[in-house]
Amino acid sequence: MISSTVSMGQLQQGIDTISHNLANMNRTGYQRRESSFADMLYQQVNNQTVPQPEGTRYTPEGIRVGTGAGLAQTAMRFEQGSIHQSGRSLDFALTQPGQFFPVERDGETYLTRDGAFYLTESAAGAWQLVTRNGEALLDVNGNAMTVPGEAVDFTLQPDGTLNAQLNDGTEVAIGTLSVANVSKPQLLEAIGNNLFAIPDVDALDLAIGDVLEYEAATSESVVQGALEQSNVDMAMEMVKLMEMQRLYSMHSRSLSQSDQMMGLVNSLR
User: Fold this and answer.
1) What are the residue ranges spanned by the domains of the chain?
2) Are 217 and 156 a contacting pair, CB within 8 Å?
3) Percentage above 90 pLDDT, the chain
4) DSSP 3-state assignment of 181?
5) 48 C-beta neighbours (distance < 10 Å), count
6) At CA 85, angle to CA 79 and CA 89, rounded to 5?
7) How does pLDDT run across 204-251, given as a tens digit for each residue?
8) Are 102 and 136 in contact (CB under 8 A)?
């Protein structure tokens, strides 16, 4: 009963992870989660009160009673998603896994693979490029990318320079688009809204260069007028969901049968 109860609780967490993936499969740049399970600790039981000769036995004496399976980890999978042409000049798709756009919110720098940006007016009165949630897009120098109010269109140059076309036909450079190359993406912390927090490298005894490096976007790393779709494979997620549901059902039946057996034992006269 203990094994089934514990396993059902852990399997429910795995089902929740799959549900989260399916709910976000249409979200731009979403990176899927994957759960893995491991056996929990075993309890050693000495069921032989009197030593008996067991010369042919190769396993330790007694029996090992398991306590079910536990959720070992829920890891991020940073595979490249498919690229969908949108035709919008402020949509940018990253073409390599491990690349992110740096954005800023409340003085903190975060990373995202969602390349859909919008124009909004800042508190200082300047127009900025921001994410759908309001985080400011940073240029290669770590500054928010400001845009003239007369801008009507944008063009990304091969060297990463983003030009704005004004309503009078002139063209001005507003900054160089930055890309963060993360060599250890497993250290990033997902904080919601497609954002990832940069780890405290000092606590990990690492230099920031050991985790990520910033560079100017190029025509090979960023595609303008396109968006990266999520890397969720619906067919694979449904297969895993069916597997976990059947395991959950099996443990549920085991728990029910154990309860019936205990009821029979208690009813014996």
Assistant:
1) 2-77+244-267, 83-228
2) yes
3) 62
4) strand
5) 11
6) 110
7) 899 999 999 999 999 899 999 999 999 999 999 999 999 999 998 988
8) no
